[in-house]
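Suppose you are handed a protein chain with no further information: no name, no annotation, nothing but its sequence. What can you learn? This example shows the usual starting point.
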Amino acid sequence: MMDTFENTLAFAQQCDQSDELNCYQQQFLFPKHKGQPVIYFTGNSLGLQPKIAQDYVNEVMQTWADYAVDGHFHTENPWWSYHERLASPVAKIVGALPEEITVMNTLTVNLHLLMVSFYKPTVQRFKIICEEKAFPSDQYMLNSQFRFHGFDPKEALIEVKKRAGETFWRTEDILQTIETHKNELALVFIGGVNYYNGQVFDMKTITEAGHKAGAFVGWDLAHAAGNIKLNLHDWGVDFAAWCSYKYMNSGPGNASGVFVHQKYLGKKDISRFEGWWGHDKPTRFLMEPEFIPMPNADAWQLSNASILSLAPYLASLQLFEKAGMDALIEKSKNLTAYLEFILKQTHDYQTFFELITPEERGCQLSLLIKKNGRKVFAYLSQNGVVTDWREPGVIRLAPTPFYCSFEQMFRFGEIFRAAVKEIG
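A reasonable first move is to predict its three-dimensional structure. Written in structure tokens, the prediction is:
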């Protein structure tokens, strides 16, 4: 990681010239502001479109036109096995074995399906630990699971809170909460990277503690997959799921990735909702009444895959394969650190904003704007900077390494300081 920075255009441009990944910026399509590409900080909400995505979608459309139903079997990339092409590249991104990965449905749908296997409450063990104010969809999912199983969410959900006056969670508080409730704990389920403040949780340590307490441990990796270093297999995580439209640039609302640890694969007696695409592939079209699970995570599949959704996801994964997660993470660290440096060049910045993202982070900085936050957000938008607003006063900035540059960080600093001067 870089040791020193300079708040100059020449320094930023030199960093870009030395950046082996800088060429990837040209592989994405940017919205325009006054004829120029925007500075795009919302890859943690929706990633930009890879230019090659259109080709992958067009291939599927052409196959449909040329082959119709025979596209399932009699083409170069048959649809009935299309999803299998994603397993290996996704596995590299999340630190898994290819057989532990499947791609299907959308995120919250998959979390509900995984809860069938990994939330098995009893009279004694029925509680779930999560972080305070988890992403709303996770909260809704958990509460509906409690009600489905006959439990009161107010009694069954244990939320780990931040300490008074702090903007982040402490690992020791999570571990203490696990220890306190170990005899009634069924599941630990946390967002691996918090969507609001960008904090990366110590997944390895928390997973170990959850297992020691006799609970399953799962992770929502919506803001982690494609963003930070993950080693799901080696950490012994039981299950995880993530969307693909944020850091993995697969397109709005696109297919979700699922991880199920190897130790649960190939079992017929595991609790699981089942459908025909999870049935043993060689005998699937014999239409036999007894379900024989696939030997890998595909056993959790229900229906045949949405090929038009998978096509742009596969296109983006090809870019990940070429760039490599290690290189992306290294650039992410440098780019995010430079953005922080640039922000702190703002005169008397501490009176204007508070950085609520801790050092344990991916490529996100969350700024709590102390006054006129909405006006700052609007000013940035009106000057070609796309950021994300979260109540009550947070602007989220995600300098995604695939398509953000050091020069953009420098130019953003100029726009941000202009906003402070005009509004602050």
